[in-house]
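Quick note —
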Amino acid sequence: MQQCTVDVIGIIFEVHESKMLNLKDGSQRAKRELLIGDETNISIMVTLWGDICEAQPYKAGQVIALKACRISDYNGKCLNASSDMQDIVLNLKH
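Predicted structure written out below.
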């Protein structure tokens, strides 16, 4: 599958706790998952990586926009958020 990115906007349905993952090179990296969706109850898991996991107070019910998410097909479709904080916008007016 060719790597592609998408921009998404939705409501945060669930915020999972951040956890540290051990990488093959011996280092660690933070990972956090958000379940986002829309008023039709269609939802998708978005994975945040690194510093952006704790950069903002993510809460259920917030509207979030994410730019340049990579589509992943690991245990079903999911999105990997960009590591650039400028690609995440919270508290959009709806």
